[in-house]
Sequence to fold (44 residues):
Amino acid sequence: MELAHIEKVQAKVDRLKVNAAAAAAILASLKDNTNIVVKLGPLF
Fold:
């Protein structure tokens, strides 16, 4: 029972790490652009 809970929590942490890495990659790719709002506008 306890092991199953630990594995579930670890899976959530792993997903958060993947999401954080993806967000960091997006931000890094946009950092050199001066027109970020123009590029992100269609997303909103």
User: Anything to note?
Assistant: The two ends are 43 Å apart (CA to CA). Residues 2-30 form the longest helix (29 residues). The chain has one domain: 2-43.
